[in-house]
Amino acid sequence: MVSDGAAADRMQQQLIEKCYRERTPASASAFSEAGKWLPGGNSRQAGYWNPYPLTFVRGEGCYLWDLDDNHYIDLLGNYTALVHGHAYPPILEAVLARTAGGTCWVGNNESQIYLAQLLAERVAAVEQVRFTNSGTEAGNLALMIARKHSGRDKLLMARGGYHGSLMEFETGFGGREGPLTCIAEYGNLAAFQQILSEQGQSIAAVFLEPVMGASGVIPGDSAFLNGVQQAARDAGALFVLDEVLTFRLAFGGVQQLVGMAPDLTVFGKLIGGGFPVGAIGGSRELLAMFDPVSPRIFHTGTFNANPVTMAAGVVSVKELTAGRIAHMEALAEKLKAGLVHGAAEAGLPLSINHVGSIMNLFFSEQATTTYGERNDQELTARFHLAALNHGLFIAPRGLIALSTVMTEALIDEVLERAVLAMIDAAAQTP
Ligand code: PMP
Hints:
Oligomer: single chain
CATH topology of the largest domain: Aspartate Aminotransferase, domain 2
Strand content: 15-25%
Strand order of the largest sheet: 4-12-11-10-7-5-6
Shape: globular
Bound molecules: 4'-deoxy-4'-aminopyridoxal-5'-phosphate
Number of helices: 14
Order of helices and strands: HHEEEHHEHEHEHEEEHEHEEHHHEEHEEH
Low-confidence stretches: none
């Protein structure tokens, strides 16, 4: 009976939550203290979950430790940024050497040259790079360039696409048009073409992720991505490819895999080696807007191209070799197959969207998106908390991102723990 099922679900949720609270009292009191001084007790929407987020004190390799000294296998790596795990020794070495010699100054540092060069050598469409402190800032900068270049105001993006915490981007992420934001369905080339042919004269830029990350790891195919790029060019708009999350998926970014040459590429996350970062890359001609001798866009920032971030970023990018990308992908295949098998054993529906080293779990017969009508929210929340109880850290919405330092043996351990969490999450029939 439906009502019995719902009651059983609730009871199961309560049991899982009780266990979570019992294991993490220090995080509970830290969160209640945080609420006095920080709105809602944190500084980051994506770092909250019910009933309260954990407070971590240490990370090393694939592991995180919380205030109660529980440890977790970190399957998220700060939403994909830590592609080599926590405190990766080569990054640590570079950062310790850098910090010992001072952390920031006005004027150049050599590491920013190396990092820009590394990106330009890997990504064919990138001749020059401009650094920021976050992916959001980089997205904003791309929009500024496009507006200056075209004399137009609007942007076109995919429904559910994510390009950062900027009002113009957030409306689209929330699935809504805004006064400056047009949206079309991801994957629907004709819809993008139609908007560009009808409103092209007011659209400065088209933004796309080659794989929608925040919306549930939804890949775009080559025909769609290249078609939108062409339609943007035909309409005189810049085409901006957001590789903040996807640069980990291929040596030259996903644009290399699908043969694209975007006007601007947005970077972030892994290129900072675990420190705050963002960047845009593009042609010399477009980036000349920032030439300090004759700037067309005023852009400065106390911590832009910060020496510590740049030193860490150089190591992070250099050490993300094609071989390691393939290693992560093979581990992800193994993890995916094991999770699907485990879910069947636990009697839970599970569908997984998967590209390379990232995947999103959906506890339903069919994978959907995280922004639309998601019918597995309760079950996903239950699994998320149960997974924490069994020492696995994944995103509350089901995102998983592997790192280069993971091994097959670790994935075996993850699978053992995940099956226990699935058994907990599955409501018992009363
Ligand atoms: N673009 C994409 C595709 C992202 O995934 C993110 C962050 N999740 C951003 C932009 C924004 O980056 P940041 O959080 O560094 O501002």
